[in-house]
Design goal:
Shape: flat
Structural class: alpha/beta
Distance between the termini: 17 Å
Radius of gyration: 13 Å
Oligomer: single chain
Order of helices and strands: EHEHEH
CATH architecture: 3-Layer(aba) Sandwich
Number of domains: 1
CATH superfamily: Response regulator
Strand order of the largest sheet: 1-2-3
Largest sheet: 3 strands, parallel
């Protein structure tokens, strides 16, 4: 099984630090896995915190399906098999 992307919501973690702990404990191959976070927490302090935790892209709710699909395409295009 090959993973190309992770998508998460801040609220699902309980504490955002759990994300960082889990990511650090994951197999080394997953540490480079792009992460898109989708959340209703749209204040800049939450965006900054997500960046500190290693989130690659932050989408605030509501978000457009087209934007999400474009991001998925962007992050998975480079890892697609040749």
């Amino acid at each position: 099984m090959s993973l190309n992307l992770q998508s998460s919501d801040f609220e699902l973690f309980g504490l955002p630090e759990r994300f960082a702990q889990d990511r650090a404990a994951i197999d080394a191959r997953w540490k480079e896995l792009p992460v898109i976070m989708i959340t209703s927490r749209i204040a800049q302090k939450h965006r900054d915190h997500a960046a500190e935790l290693g989130v690659d892209h932050y989408l605030g709710k509501p978000y457009s399906e087209e934007d999400l699909l474009a991001l998925i395409g962007r992050y998975t295009a480079h890892s697609a098999p040749a």
